[in-house]
Design goal:
The protein is mainly alpha-helical and 403 residues long. Helix content is 81%, strand content 0%.
Length: 403
């Protein structure tokens, strides 16, 4: 186990690397109208640049997984972050919406390396019984992104134009790169025996996918991410259009929910003193299932009005803070030699689940809260069923020591 000072530095840098993705998503959302106006296009077309970013994140993680197992963790980070920085700067001078869509895809391909390497490094550095606590700490760092990114993006658009958002993203990633260079040790030496032949890579990914513990907790995590993205996609209509909440008030609600998720991740570290990661996930999943069902009832009855909706959504989102660090630790626990590939496959699959749920919310829009609340409840129900089907397996060990 690393000493406390070393752990703090590592968590800060890994958290910054992981937060590049959320910052890239949330920070430029307030700039959509300005981007559409400057590029002489519609907001709907600008939104495709967000979709291309999600595709790039998913594919990029699959690419970097075996690369980081073969060449070590830090060399791919240098390459990926350099690509991200260059693409971010190029976005400033994007001449059209089509160019922006393409550049955002390239930007995501570069930035996705941070998500893969941060999880793999935690698996490299810490024993399985400690990883859930480290992932909880990472949530504290990376969770700041959804709280401050939209506000920061809005200020930049107002005072410096939408192009300044991409300059800020380039600067943030450069600072993360410097932090990685100065504070992160190399946790994985190059392994020439690992082949990068496409057939071998696909075979390795298939072997990881077939691992029962991995797929159980990846699906649970994917459904949890899907529930969160259902909230993100549907909440502007439900709060602003249905309940008349102002944009500023919506920002406070959004930030409060993100804060609840972060704080739950820290409570999770204390809970791990007495319970295993698997036990915590099962308890929280049942609680979230009850909240999800309550949200569906609310959609039909509107009982309790806006205060009830805010309360239920806050609890639902806070419970995610317990699930994310524990499911990540459990999914990666069986893999030491190929933690990078396992991390990549996990991240990619979860973005696929989240993307599908976001599309479903858009397609089922019916001027009510039901598409959002129904999707949130359905995701939790599927996670519950998967956990019951995987109940025969007994993953893991009780934690021995708190970080």
């Amino acid at each position: 186990m690393k000493n406390q000072k070393s752990t703090t530095y590592i968590v800060l840098v890994l958290g910054a690397l992981t937060a590049i993705g959320p910052f890239s998503i949330d920070m430029y959302l307030p700039g959509f109208p300005a981007i559409a106006k400057d590029l002489n296009t519609s907001i709907a077309e600008v939104q495709l640049s967000l979709a291309s970013f999600f595709v790039g994140l998913s594919l990029g993680q699959l690419f970097y997984g075996p690369i980081t197992d073969r060449f070590g963790r830090k060399p791919p980070l240098y390459v990926g972050l350099s690509i991200y920085i260059l693409a971010s700067v190029a976005c400033i001078w994007a001449p059209s919406a089509e160019a922006l869509i393409a550049l955002r895809f390239v930007q995501a391909l570069g930035g996705s390396v941070g998500m893969v390497v941060s999880r793999a490094m935690v698996r490299d550095l810490y024993p399985p019984e400690e990883t859930a606590k480290i992932f909880s700490l990472l949530m504290l760092v990376m969770g700041v992104a959804p709280i401050i990114a939209p506000t920061l993006g809005g200020m930049l658009v107002t005072y410096a134009g939408w192009q300044s958002i991409f300059l800020a993203l380039a600067i943030i990633s450069f600072v993360a790169l410097l932090g990685m260079r100065l504070a992160l040790p190399e946790t994985r030496q190059p392994t020439p025996s690992i082949s990068l032949h496409p057939k071998v890579v696909l075979k390795d990914y298939w072997a990881i996918f077939k691992n029962r513990q991995f797929i159980v907790y990846v699906i649970v995590g994917g459904m949890t991410a899907g529930g969160m993205f259902a909230y993100i996609s549907g909440s502007p209509f439900v709060f602003i259009e249905m309940h008349g909440v102002t944009e500023a008030q919506f920002g406070w609600i959004f930030g409060a929910n993100a804060f609840g998720l972060i704080m739950a991740g820290q409570v999770n570290r204390l809970w791990l003193r007495k319970n295993t990661t698997a036990q915590i996930i099962r308890i929280v999943n049942v609680a979230q299932l009850i909240v999800g069902a309550s949200l569906v009832v609310y959609a039909f009855t509107l009982w309790g009005g806006l205060p009830m909706l805010i309360t239920l959504v806050f609890i639902y989102m806070a419970l995610i803070g317990f699930i994310f660090p524990n499911k990540t630790a459990l999914a990666l626990a069986p893999f030491a030699k190929n933690a990078g590939a396992a991390s990549a496959l996990m991240g990619s699959l979860q973005f696929v689940f989240a993307g599908i749920l976001s599309a479903v919310i858009s397609a089922l829009h019916n001027e009510s809260a039901l598409p959002m609340t129904g999707a949130m409840a359905l995701c939790t129900l599927i996670a519950f069923i998967i956990l019951q089907l995987g109940a025969k397996q007994k993953p893991e060990h009780r934690p021995k020591k708190v970080v």
